[in-house]
Design goal:
- With 59 residues, the chain is α+β, with helices and mostly antiparallel strands.
- It contains two helices and two strands, in the order ββαα.
- The longest helix is centred in the middle third of the chain and has 22 residues.
- The two termini are 30 Å apart.
Length: 59
């Protein structure tokens, strides 16, 4: 649901589940940007995905 003022979107309302999906997708995108820039945060892909899912160390 979007709250608008004319053609301008002022706010978006989304469910918690959808927000978690969006947040996870953003985390993946930022991780890929860092990888392409050569920034090494020391987190392997499998560990990163586990963190997104709330598994293991760093969750």
């Amino acid at each position: 649901m979007a709250l608008t003022d004319g053609d301008e979107v002022l706010a978006l309302l989304i469910s918690v589940a959808d927000w978690e999906d969006v947040r996870d997708a953003l985390d993946v995108a930022f991780n890929e940007i860092d990888r392409l820039r050569g920034v090494d945060d020391g987190v392997e892909h499998d560990e990163f995905v586990g963190q997104l899912r709330g598994e293991g160390h760093g969750a």
